[in-house]
Design goal:
It is a single chain. 48% of the residues lie in helices and 18% in strands. The chain contains 16 helices and 19 strands. It has two domains: 244 residues, GROEL, domain 1; 150 residues, GroEL, CATH 3.50.7. The model has no long low-confidence stretch (mean pLDDT 85).
Length: 530
């Protein structure tokens, strides 16, 4: 006789959600994440306060918000990941990609409830993505060969990127600053050569671009404060060689004089190390670790500038821009591997003294000094500027541009709708849903500004159907307008990445029909922290 009890396959404590329940759980989690960041989208988007145990951040950067919140829903985690990838890949569009994926899943939820199979929806979406990408390629403009027009494009892209950030009040000033910094890179796209230094005080427009490299450290006592034709030995080495560092070690001596002997031996080792460093021919010694008083005095005696505790990022970047290597031993330091620059001197920024390295080997190196009233403003300004720098460096490599203000999304939606009209079967319904999701981006931008989104999007859809594909939303005046005249330009690379990442993430979540959660690890009652 067969038992009617269900067979237990999964281990005790494990959970399983099947078909409709699993899909609904995925949709709800992903849509909630999209709705969380939706209000930050566009030039009139609002900010979020992220409060940790000891920190407060104020930001409207999608990737920063999502990175800071803890999510348990697996579909929500997928959207957090695509936001992070978007940030790493192109630097901007982190909110757009999450909102588009969220709207696609909202549409999919309606289609699934109409008994349209997920694989049919995915087939329609894939055709829609190809059509949208082709439409975007056709309208993309490329001024890469014309330096004057290309600089104007870069300025417009920087202004558009910064218009949704804290720097929007001074976007012309910061756009110019970011474009100057990126064009110094001469197409290398190596953002490590651009250093951002945050200094409290002043106001945002007191920020400026400084050629060369700035190091936020002080020179040792009695050492030269200015050195021309600097030969820099960059090191990551302990100066207290062989000092006993084992906690609780005892040194037994039979007379106090023996302690002095130990100190003298230690000093001799330090002196020997300093002599080896000086014999390399350097006149500047920069160490990531402590230098201590005695070696500092020895360096001062021979006229070498010594700087201690240069943090690792500072040391790495200094090695890059001065063309030097980081040494840890000095038995045979190679003079060819020393860093070089024309001048090292102290400069004042606010109330702080910094070291300025001028005439560095990597000519494109520069530092952006940010000023602001609070740490939160400075941190958000840095994130905003970093987004702009990333987008600009991507645009220097992939020089095509498209228009912003929702015009690209409306153009892609129009192309997808036209394809849907020619497509027989249920795939056409999925394509129309895809177009609707694309139109939700400009709708959200208008909603966040407090305008009548239904009216504006209807007008925008009408002009795009007529073929006026440069039209988008003018959020200053609350009307539809020609984006070409307004100079609202975005990077083709960013737009394409938003489209592809959002579609792939939404497709991945839509494919799910089972969620299996592992059983939580059981704690042994004896496994306690003592």
């Amino acid at each position: 006789m067969l038992s009617l009890n269900p067979v237990q396959i999964l281990s005790a404590g494990a959970e399983e959600e099947k078909s409709e329940t699993a899909r609904l759980s995925s949709f709800v989690g992903a849509i909630a994440i999209g709705d969380l960041v939706k209000s930050t989208l566009g030039p009139k988007g609002m900010d979020k306060i992220l409060q940790g145990s000891n920190s407060v951040e104020v930001t409207n950067d999608g990737a920063t918000i999502l990175r800071s919140i803890g999510v348990d829903n697996p579909a929500a985690k997928v959207l957090v990941d695509i936001s992070k990838v978007q940030d790493d890949e192109v630097g901007d569009g982190t909110t757009s990609v999450v909102v588009l994926a969220c709207e696609l899943l909202r549409e999919a939820e309606g289609l699934v409830s109409q008994k349209i199979h997920p694989q049919t929806i995915i087939a329609g979406w894939r055709k829609a993505v190809d059509e949208a990408r082709d439409a975007l390629k056709k309208v993309a403009r490329d001024h890469g060969k014309d330096p004057a027009k290309f600089r104007a494009d870069l300025m417009n892209i920087a202004r558009t990127t910064l218009s949704s950030k804290i720097l929007t009040q001074h976007k012309d000033y910061f756009s110019n600053l970011a474009v100057d910094a990126v064009l110094r890179l001469k197409g290398s796209g190596n953002l490590d050569a651009i250093q951002i230094i945050k200094k409290l005080g002043g106001q945002l427009q007191d920020s400026y671009l400084e050629e060369g490299f700035l190091l936020d450290k002080k020179i040792g006592v009695n050492q030269p404060k200015r050195i021309e034709n600097a030969k820099i030995l960059i090191a990551n080495t302990p100066m207290d060689t062989d000092k006993i560092k084992v906690f609780g070690t005892r040194v037994r001596v039979d007379a106090v004089s023996k302690v002095a002997d130990l100190e003298i031996a230690e000093k001799e080792k330090m002196k020997e190390k300093v002599n080896r460093i000086v014999s390399s021919g350097c006149n500047v010694f920069i160490n990531r670790q402590l230098i201590y008083n005695y070696p500092e005095q020895l360096f001062a005696d021979v006229g070498v500038m010594a700087i201690e505790h240069a943090d690792f990022e500072g040391v790495e970047r200094l090695g890059l821009v001065t063309g030097g290597e980081i040494f840890s031993t000095f038995d045979n330091p190679n003079p060819e591997k020393l860093g070089r620059c024309d001048l090292i001197e102290e400069v004042m920024i606010g109330e702080d003294k910094l070291l300025k390295f001028s005439g560095v080997k990597l000519g494109e190196a520069c530092s952006i000094v940010l000023r602001g009233a609070t740490q939160q403003i400075l941190a958000e300004a840095e994130r905003s500027l970093h987004d702009a720098l990333c987008v600009l460096s991507q645009t220097v490599k992939e020089t095509r541009t498209v228009f912003g203000g929702g015009s690209s999304e409306m153009l892609m939606a129009d192309a997808v709708n036209k394809l849907a009209a020619k497509t027989p079967g249920k795939e056409a319904v999925a394509m129309e849903a895809f177009a609707k999701a694309l139109r939700m981006l400009p709708t959200t931008i208008a909603d966040n500004a407090g305008y009548d989104s239904a009216d504006l999007i209807a007008k925008l859809r009408a002009v795009h159907t007529e073929g006026k594909h440069t039209y988008g939303l003018n959020m200053d005046q609350g009307k539809i307008d020609d984006m070409e005249k307004n100079g609202i330009t975005e990077s083709f690379q960013v737009k394409r990445q938003v489209l592809l990442s959002a579609a792939e993430a939404a497709e991945m979540i839509l494919r799910v029909d089972n969620i299996i959660k592992a059983a939580p690890r059981r704690r042994d009652p004896d496994d306690r922290c003592h």
